[in-house]
Amino acid sequence: MPSKKALVRRPSPRLAEGLVTHIARERVDHGLAVEQWEAYVEALDAHGWETLEVDPADDCPDSVFVEDTVVMYRNVALITRPGAESRRAETPGVEEAVARLGCSVNWIWEPGTLDGGDVLKIGDTIYVGRGGRTNAAGVQQLRAAFEPLGARVVAVPVSKVLHLKSAVTALPDGTVIGHIPMTDVPSLFPRFLPVPEESGAHVVHLGGAKLLMAASAPKTADLLADLGHEPVVVDIGEFEKLEGCVTCLSVRLRELYV
Ligand SMILES: NC(=O)NCCC[C@H](N)C(=O)O
């Protein structure tokens, strides 16, 4: 059943201590980050998404990146076991939120690790990045959770960026977009469109032709507009300093059974 709800989570007061793995640490302006987060939430609201705030996890610096804590397929919520130990305390609040929404709940268990940012769904194909945060046991558990429901799980290597979706996301027609220098094996995707900027690889389909994108990728926004898409641009610069992107600041719930 189609639904248009999105989980978001207010930035922790400790946001500036968030993990940084592939880039140099830069000072995060907390006040500006909160303003950017509010504008991001407003952009979802303005395009018909009912945003639901998961209870804040103030002791968890990276908790705003809520996408990493749960993977949705149909109305099943797979609670992850984040690859970074400092992020594991983020999951109980998310579990409670999805259970309240009537989702069936499943879990990634030790020794599995999996971050939601490593999971890209295109129809019933679920690409999963095996990289710094998601291990082989996590991939197997993802398969076991969703293949019996009709999904096909395709594992792809990720070595150049934090998560699979730091490298690639998909347009509404299923074309995968990515910045070639950050993508391990572009040929694994049946239709691949290279984009000129690293952050241009990140889009959230808001509905219709609208694509939520970061302000840091103006050339890619022009490219996508020229192909008939309608970029909706938000500045998420403070989150990009922590390797965040537009995809990881929300979890879209499109198939709740209500
Ligand atoms: N899915 C995502 O792209 N998540 C971004 C997580 C950034 C956070 N600083 C982390 O390293 O876990």
Could you walk me through the main structural features you see in this protein, from its secondary elements to its overall organization?
InterPro entries: DDAH-like. GO terms for molecular function: dimethylargininase activity. Keywords: Hydrolase. Its EC number is 3.5.3.18. The chain has 258 residues and is α/β, with parallel strands linked by helices. 21% of the residues lie in helices and 24% in strands. It has helices at residues 30-46, 91-100, 136-146, 164-167, 218-226, 237-240; strands at 5-8, 50-53, 70-73, 76-79, 104-107, 119-122, 125-130, 152-157, 168-170, 176-178, 192-194, 204-207, 210-214, 230-234, 251-253. Strands 2-1-15 form a three-stranded mixed beta sheet, covered by helices on one side. A three-stranded mixed beta sheet has the order 3-4-5, sandwiched between helices. A three-stranded mixed beta sheet has the order 6-7-8, with helices on one face. Strand 13, helix 5 (218-226) and strand 14 (230-234) form a beta-alpha-beta unit.
The rounded Rg comes to 17 Å
Query: How many strand units?
Result: 15
Structural class, by secondary structure, is alpha/beta
SSE order: EHEEEHEEEHEHEEEEEHEHE
EC number: 3.5.3.18
Family: Belongs to the DDAH family.
Enzyme class: hydrolase
GO molecular function, one term: dimethylargininase activity
